[in-house]
Design a protein that fits this description.
This protein has about 190 residues and is α/β, with parallel strands linked by helices. Helix content is about 55%, strand content about 10%.
Amino acid sequence: MQSFIFIGYRGTGKTTIARKLAERLGVPAFDSDAEIERQAGKRIADIFAQDGEPAFRDLEESVIAGILAQSVPLVLATGGGAILRASTRTRLRQSGFVIGLTATPETILQRISSDAATQTMRPNLTDLPMREEIVAVLGQRKALYAETSHEIIDTDNRTVDEIVEHIFAKILPHRSAGCEHIHFRVGG
């Protein structure tokens, strides 16, 4: 079995879906942001504020490489900006089946507004109001998410269980058969 890697903007469900899929597959689940915070001994927002984004991206790249170097299948949820470095995008695609998760800006705003961790752990990425920031950053990253993904799943109006079921019904059978690239798109 191959590893599964989730990418996408914050609030698209990466960590929650990764945990559920890993549990169902009986493999370890990792969250690169949580591992970065563990290794750095501080919150991501503090890393950005104290050390700057380039230092954060260096640590992120190193942490992701370390997780993916394991010789066992696993499920990894990455941070929303993990796709910003070409070397990380390449590593992700070569190390597992990459699933890009999407949602509308309205859904993302609702999800991150109701998540306490957003305020305490995640840095603002711009000086824009939150909805405008989401639209702007999604616009900048959309092509990178698409380029890195083997499949894209829209998480709007879907439960975690529905998404995991989709992966079991549509992706796992193809991966077991040795298909290298699956380019069907689910949802919007």
